Amino acid sequence: MDPEPQVMIESELAAMLVKPPKLKPGATLCLVAPASRVADVPSYEMGKRLLEERGYRLVEGAHVRDAMLLFAGKDRDRADDINRAFADRAIDAIICVQGGAGTARVLPYIDFGLIAGNPKIFVGYSDVTILQVAMLERCGLITFYGPMVATEVGRAFTPFTDGIFFQMLTTSEGNIELRNRPGREMLTLYPGEARGQLVGGCLSVFVSTLGTEWEVDTREKILFFEDIDERPHRIDRYLTQLLLANKLQAAKAILFGAFTRCEYTERRYHSVPRVRTLDIIRDRVLPLQKPCLYGLQFGHAREKLTLPHGGYAFLDATHQRVFVESPVS
Q1: pTM of the model
Q2: Residues 6+ apart with CB under 8 A from 288
């Protein structure tokens, strides 16, 4: 195996990035719900109990158990929970309860100046993508695309998921290699190497930023995408939209994760079952001739890696290796 590469932040990027303080034993964690209402209360309670058994003190956002339409309460209330968590000096890290829908609705009420002045670990994924994009764009804050309390910690927090999660939140020096658990192979779609900032998340949510003030500048970035319950024709639509917006062309490289429950299961007027999500991805990205890797397990994968959104990374698509610089201070 080749030696570990040097993952170095370029000086200009380093000046803009904010690494949150690392997670320490006995830290206080605030649980927030920026998206959907808690759907599985037993799993949520189990997740809380497991974190407490780890020695962490938990504080629950005031509106975590609220419900309005599809969401965990009113938009301003959900945003207020996040604002208060960043403002409270007694809180060390913030972890989302679950994803779902509605995170974009809280953006007008988020105090990004407050967040910039009080950087902390913030963890979530899926619908939370848009909030992580916004925190990076407005505050330069590295956040963590990783497991949430009700959907993973309380339901499927495997030793693999657990190990890389806490490694990512507590490692303040050196590099971390992102490796799938044994048996989960990656696929090189286009060979080559790239260094750059990791930006992305849930593909369908990321695309929803186009044409808004939260639209991402993808120049010189390593993009990472995954999704759930999106059929190949929708994946094609999202990737085509990114191509038409010149977002994929501007990037240095692309890293694709798991696309969970995204294959056709029956013949319909618009689908051919033998066309797979991977076929669509190949068709859209191979002409770009950029380093591209498929199959890293993050996001909606069961045994998932935690990725530092906004962190600096080295991608060797040829040899299927990914390294990130320690994302906490």
Answers
A1: 0.95
A2: 190, 248, 249, 254
